[in-house]
Q: What sequence folds into this?
């Protein structure tokens, strides 16, 4: 009877240790998996942010090119306007000459000056419109670049978070294993202590005396 009781205490300690280790392994596995899952989510977020950053950079480049195009187109249009004004004035002078009117008279000079002034106004309008459109594109480019920078910064933080999540999962797994080992050792020690107590009790009762 004493042997059965002692064997039961030993078995109880062993079963407790096995149970503790099994639970610890399950918790460790779960912690590691959760850490990896979170890390994957952060990595996916980082990849998306990097992609969005590259798109924003491309949009910024397109906006810059559009701004330069407007400036170039405005310059060409202004030159054409100047040329048109010059041709108009030349045509007016030719008409005056053909009609026998002195091209150097005050009236013809006033008409030429008026034509020149209207031509200059057209040129200024063309240049101002081109600059306004170019400035709008430059603002877009600035905003796109800011967005690209923010997205790339976010990607960096997400990658850091992924590393932390993975490391945290590993640490939690190690902690679960350590806790399990302690619990298993406690179970074994508890079983051994029970065996010792029963042994002493049985001995005191003379169960082992011949």
A:
């Amino acid at each position: 009877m004493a042997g059965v009781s002692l064997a039961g205490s030993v078995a109880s300690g062993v079963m407790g240790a096995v149970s503790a280790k099994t639970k610890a392994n399950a918790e460790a596995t779960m912690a590691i998996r959760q850490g990896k899952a979170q890390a994957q989510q952060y990595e996916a977020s980082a990849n998306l942010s990097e992609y969005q950053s590259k798109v924003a950079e491309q949009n910024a480049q397109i906006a810059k090119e559009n701004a330069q195009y407007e400036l170039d187109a405005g310059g060409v249009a202004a030159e054409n306007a100047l040329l048109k004004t010059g041709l108009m004035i030349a045509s007016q002078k030719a008409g005056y000459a053909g009609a026998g009117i002195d091209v150097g008279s005050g009236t013809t000079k006033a008409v030429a000056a008026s034509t020149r002034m209207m031509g200059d106004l057209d040129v200024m309008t063309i240049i101002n419109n081109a600059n306004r459109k170019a400035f709008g594109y430059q603002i877009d480019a600035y905003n796109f670049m800011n967005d690209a920078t923010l997205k790339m910064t976010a990607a960096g933080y997400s990658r850091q978070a992924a590393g932390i999540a993975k490391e945290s999962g590993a640490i939690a797994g190690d902690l679960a294993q350590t806790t399990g080992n302690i619990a298993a050792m406690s179970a074994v020690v508890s079983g051994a202590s029970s065996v010792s107590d029963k042994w002493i009790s049985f001995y005191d009762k003379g169960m082992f005396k011949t």
User: Anything to note?
Assistant: The radius of gyration is 45 Å.
